[in-house]
Amino acid sequence: MKNVSIIGSGFSGLSAACYLAKEGYKVSVYEKNDTIGGRARQFTEDGFTFDMGPSWYWMPEIFESFFNDFGKSTTDYYELVQLDPGYKVYFGQNDVVSVSASLEKTYKTFDALEKGSSVFLKKFLKKAGYNYHVAMNKVVDKPGKSPLELVMPETIGNLGQFAASLGSYVRKNIKDKRLAQILEFPVLFLGAKPEKTPLFYCFMNHADMVLGTWHPMGGFYKVIEGMEQLCNELGVKIHTNAKVSRIHIKNRKIQGVQVNGEMLHTDFVVSGADYHHTETLLDKQARNYSRRYWQKRTFAPSALIYFVGFNKKLENVNHHTLFFDADFGVHASNIYDTPAWPKQPLFYASFPSITDSSVAPNGKEAAVFLIPIAPGISENGDTSEKYFRQIISRMEETTSQELVSSIVYKKSYGPSDFTGDYNAYKGNAYGLANTLFQTGFLKPKMVNKKISNLLYTGQLTVPGPGVPPSIISGRIAAHEAMEIMKKSHETAI
Q: SS3 of 277, please?
């Protein structure tokens, strides 16, 4: 039986572990932190429960498909509820737009703000739906080895969508800036400016408005716990507080991994850790990419995050609430064009206790605030406090309620924490931006070209950033690993 070592216990690592274990491989997962989940960890404090990473549960069929592959269902591990509205967007005081779980209500919302705009929205969502099914059924499972993977009737007929940007297409057809920003918002999950994101990625709007926004009761970490339970059922061994500090190679083949100073034999390694960090565990001549290569990549944003407990229930907010009461273009420029701390950042707030009473004490509210910032800029306590005071002040004004005196718990989390906890290159939170020249086969390769038994998985390789893509990435990596090991066995015979 072949021994496979998985580095990292995020979504991609746990996904790969499950698929490999299902096929009879002896799988061990090594996680440097004291709890599993990678960026999707969770913590509790003073009766509040906070998800540290993902909070938007989109593309529910991807999660369902994963568990179905093992004869299971999401309902075997956690309970899902659909949010209605999916989210609310503040553009200023008394200027708020909600995106309903009902398409008919959303069409009416658009027409109320811009007469006739629902006609374009229906056409746009039809295109988005088609692209979604092409992406999920034809493209997303490709390992990113060759441009030929994208050559098929469905993509050849839509080549223009890779040259055109989503931002320019939306702005050409929608004049109301609020509606345009709502249509551009979903691609921010892909880590790039709308005007730099190919129109093909409008499939994210299908995920948003058609498939809807959901919440796993108990928090997003319930998904990680479900995957952990599945790992246990399949015989995967998960080790926490297990730091991999070196990958040992001989004759272009990994001999073992050094875990907490101990050399452990392995037949194959799949790394779900940060791609750049994994390469630093290798001798320079065994790495896929140079330091210069990584410096030239366009990374998705990092984030400044605040975990906050309030001693009262809040008003005029939804489970997911976006504050777009500042200049969208200026903030985006501060992230992508001339990296700098923004003067007035857009920010996102999650209040899961509105939906899920289990994550906060009775009568209190759990909140997570997130400010997207440029990767590679450093923060300190003064910076963190300055931005927290600003966003709370703006939220008080836009939602017409007093908040500061109700705060009973606060913890901040920034780029240095992403680097320390996840070895994230430049402290990035979301991996590589999905720009045209970082799409598909142009992403960092999953296969190490110089070592025969090493693969990379996760948001820095195919398919890209986000939870569903990371789960899919683990599946692709597992299947690729099995093919390589099968061929190696046949050659040995």
A: helix
Rounded to 10 deg, the angle between the 467-492 and 11-22 helix axes is 40
- Of the candidates 275, 278, 276, the one whose C-alpha atom is nearest the C-alpha of residue 243 is 278
Q: And the tokens for 46? A: 């003073």
Phi, psi of 250 (to 5 degrees): -145, 130
pLDDT tens, position by position, for the chain (493 residues)? 799 999 999 999 999 999 999 999 999 999 999 999 999 999 999 999 999 999 999 999 999 999 999 999 999 999 999 999 999 999 999 999 999 999 999 999 999 999 999 999 999 999 999 999 999 999 999 999 988 887 787 776 676 788 899 999 999 999 999 999 999 999 887 788 899 899 999 999 999 999 999 999 999 999 999 999 999 999 999 999 999 999 999 999 999 999 999 999 999 999 999 999 999 999 999 999 999 999 999 999 999 999 999 999 999 999 999 999 999 989 999 998 899 999 999 999 999 999 999 999 999 999 999 999 999 998 888 999 999 999 999 999 999 999 999 999 999 999 999 999 999 999 999 999 888 899 899 999 999 999 999 999 999 999 999 999 999 999 999 999 999 999 886 776 6
Question: For residue 238, what are the contacts with CB-CB under 8 A and spacing of at least 6?
Answer: 9, 17, 28, 29, 31, 36, 228, 231, 232
Residue 399 · residue 91 · CB < 8 Å = no
Element (H, E) at 216: strand 214-216
Q: d(Cα 365, Cα 359) in Å, to the nearest integer?
A: 8
Q: Which tokens in the block code for residue 415? A: 């780029």
Q: Which residues contact 377 (CB under 8 A, 6 or more apart)?
A: 302, 339, 340, 341, 415
Question: How far apart are the C-alpha atoms of 124 and 129, rounded to whole Å?
Answer: 9
Q: How far apart are CA 51 and CA 53, in angstroms?
A: 6
Quick check: helix, strand or coil at residue 467?
helix
* 3-state secondary structure at position 59: coil
Q: Say if residue 463 is preceded by a cis peptide, omega within 30 of 0.
A: yes
Distance CA 295, CA 432 (A): 12
User: Phi-psi region for residue 284, left (φ > 0), alpha (ψ -120 to 50) or beta?
Assistant: alpha
